[in-house]
Amino acid sequence: MGALLAGAGTGWVVAGPPTTSAAEPVARPPAATLDALDVAVRGGGAAARGAAGDRPLVGPSRPAGPGPTSPGVPSTATTRAASPAPTVPPGLTAADVAAGLLAADVPEHASGELVVVPAAQRAHADAAGGTDRVLRVRVEVEKGLPVDPAVFADFVMTTLTDGRGWGGDGSVAFEVTDAEPDVRVVLASPDLVDEMCAPLRTAGQVSCGRNGHAALNFRRWVEAVQDYGDDRTSYRQYLVNHEVGHLLGRPHRPCTAAGAVADVMQQQSYAVKPCLPNAWPFPQD
Question: What fold does the segment set 90-254 form as a domain?
Fold first, then answer.
């Protein structure tokens, strides 16, 4: 099991090609849309388990001693300009960067090679949650995607260990590993997701949770969906919780009533309305 604490860095450990039951990618319709797709994502394969930055630096004022014919003149305080704030790439927001994105481009395919984010890169310990059932989570990213793998992994694990997440009822907890996992959370290009999710028909548009892996479609990670508006962070949290929910054996749920909070297992990537968007298994008021 990998360490639960981490420092900075983005080194990768090569995990090799994805291990799934899919042998061939699924052909994508040329004009597939979310509304037109008929994907029945199943819960098969349920898991058994500093620096503070440069601040203005002001030198002490040192009045010069008075000369023989002129009054003393205090020296000018010297300052060093603070380092500029990190630049947000074009087309992205600060929230996008916090989810690991480095660019807004969505390649249809990348290298096809999955790399494991080392557990040592975790910035904080994962919550144990007072339960004997702890699932080991390995986070993987397809090489070649414009994403910071360490930041993405931190987003995933922060979501899974949130008090509103699947461990909110004390039934399960999650800890990160770079060794043999119970659950794999994989960020992959649309083409690779199609391969990993087959025979489910994801058509380059949506994600799935099956065979021990939650395969998150990079297109959805970048673009989210219309019903979430500008709140792409909440949609990304939903995506993690929904697909991991399938690995926990949770089936899809319908919208129960107009204006009701959507169940996290509702297929919100297709439509949220008439329910209200919700990213969490145990939402709090």
Answer: Collagenase (Catalytic Domain) (3.40.390)
pLDDT in tens, 66-92: 444 444 444 444 445 565 666 899 999
Give the chain's radius of gyration (CA, Å): 24
pTM of the model: 0.72
- Identify the bridge partners of residue 137 per DSSP, sorted by sequence position: 176, 183
Sequence-distant (6+) residues with CB within 8 A of 275 are 255, 256, 257, 258, 259, 260, 261, 262, 266
* C-alpha–C-alpha distance, residues 269 and 241, integer Å: 13
Q: Would strands 183-188 and 134-142 be described as parallel, antiparallel, or unpaired? A: parallel
Domain map (residue ranges) of the chain: 90-254
Contact in structure between 216 and 44 (CB atoms under 8 Å):
no
CA 121/CA 61 separation, integer angstroms: 43
Query: Cα dist. 184→70, 99, 141, 204, 214 in Å?
Result: 76, 18, 10, 20, 6
Tokens 């290009």: give the residue.
189
CA dihedral (266, 190, 221, 134) positive or negative? positive
Is residue 183 within 8 Å of 173, Cβ to Cβ? no
- Distance between CA atoms of residues 90 and 85, nearest Å: 15
Per-residue model confidence as pLDDT tens digits over 193-234: 999 999 999 999 999 999 999 999 999 999 999 999 999 999
Task: Evaluate whether 178 touches 2 at the Cβ level (below 8 Å).
Answer: yes
Q: Is the peptide bond before 199 cis (omega within 30 degrees of 0)?
A: yes
Q: How far apart are CA 11 and CA 15, in angstroms?
A: 13
- Cβ neighbours around 23 below 10 Å, total: 8
